[in-house]
């Protein structure tokens, strides 16, 4: 199945470069471009992409608000934030708005393509070292997800809590399965149950929840 991508960035060279790199992949197709957040919302609704590559700092409507509007729709696409990260203090706001992860603008062609595939598959694109730093920003600035995390965590079984904690550390399903010595399919089931029980959209929100519930401490 071909992954349909909408590119959103106000810089022509970024859009053109990413378009060339992604269209070179046999399973990815760039179906449209947008130069600002407002256009992204409109074209996202019209084109129905699987993944939106979203810049944050843009004219008219920034990527944070555009992400919030896009994911609020019916059967929304996954949003992958484009950022310079070290210089961009707004990444955590974009993730809270509903983005499924982030990708550095200087990513290689392979990293770009793999990032699109990971997000399209429903996973969160969060490297372990960056996850801790990112969640630290949530702890300092973000309002907790509601209802309170410390109340909702009691709904999880012991094994589900283990899985949630490992998600927050940035481990993939395969890595969690190896750590807990169970089949990867079993971990996928646990992850699905965790998301349903806690009313969370994806692994990104699960990681945020784990830090807010004090299951993991930022470092």
Structure commentary:
By secondary structure, the protein is an alpha/beta fold. The chain has 2 domains: 3-125, Response regulator (Rossmann fold), CATH 3.40.50; 145-212, Arc Repressor Mutant, subunit A. Helices cover 52% and strands 13% of the residues. A 5-stranded parallel beta sheet has the order 2-1-3-4-5, with helices on both faces. Helix 6 packs across helix 11 and helix 8 (158-168) packs across helix 10. It is globular. The model has no long low-confidence stretch (mean pLDDT 82). InterPro entries: CheY-like_superfamily, NreC/VraR/RcsB-like_REC, Sig_transdc_resp-reg_C-effctor, Sig_transdc_resp-reg_receiver, Tscrpt_reg_LuxR_C, WalR-like.
Relevant terms:
219 residues, alpha/beta, Rossmann fold, Arc Repressor Mutant, subunit A, 2 domains, five-stranded parallel sheet, 11 helices, globular
